[in-house]
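Example 5.3 — ABC transporter permease
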Amino acid sequence: MSLRDAGPPIALVVIFLVFSALSSDFRTIGNVQNIMDTAAVLAVVTCGITFVLMMGSIDLSAPGIMGASAIAVALLVANNRNDNDLGLIGILVAVLLAAALGCLSGLALVLLKVPSFMTTLGVSAVGLGVATLMFAGVQPNISDAMLKGWAVERFLGFAYLTWIAVGCVLLGYLVQRYSRLGRYAFAIGGAEEVLALSGVKVAPYKVAVFTLAGAFYGLAGVMVTSQLSAGLVQAGKGYDFAAITAAVVGGTLLTGGRGGILHSAVGVLLITALTNGLVQVGVSPYWQGGVQGLIVVAAVAAAVVPQRRRNQVTK
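Solution (predicted structure tokens):
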């Protein structure tokens, strides 16, 4: 393990020690449980965006895709707008809708040759449009006991949503570590031209990665609906930047080819613990966004400096 790999976990430990010294409430078991529960949705979104970042692409579609899946699931499970009561099938349909929107991002990228941040921004707008059409001016409130229970029922002290997030991190790691999709995502980010020259058709794997990311965003939208007991068009607002922040802080490079799911998971905990600690010690919420921005800049700079040194020509 390199120093860069060890840096984020060390920073996480330091943050816990510092805020534990500054606030007695921070180091309580209840607050640790709160940090984990708060990190659940962000962790799932970050799982999806990490695969895209590993390819060296940028994905800004999370807010729109999450909004579409949130409204879709709210209208498909038991709710106050219609007589639907599809339960797990409704959740599956919402995730599939999100995966389809993610697939649209991938297809636009490989067929139109448009930069990923532009295609995904467009797909986010499409998702928000679909969500607004389904919203139809009346907020759907859910009454499905199972979906509402995800946010309120607990197992071993943690909400079901937290365990779903843990499962997503584990699934993402297994895909990254043991599947061809995960290995090729790394290879595309590291040296796409070399991979293409070796005979691998890169385009289908790019589409597959965006589709997988869309599915993660869709599940995150369902989780937000569980937390709010209602479907909101803006369910995913801000999660794109927060997920990119967490992934970069955890050690996943924006240029691709380095990092991964476990790195990004550490980044999620680091960002969530930092935000929680700032609240515990009385720092204004208006400063927290600025602190996150500074952390991203510092993390990117720390990752780029070694690359610059490695790329220098010795004469």
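Remark. The CA atoms of residues 252 and 259 lie 4 Å apart.
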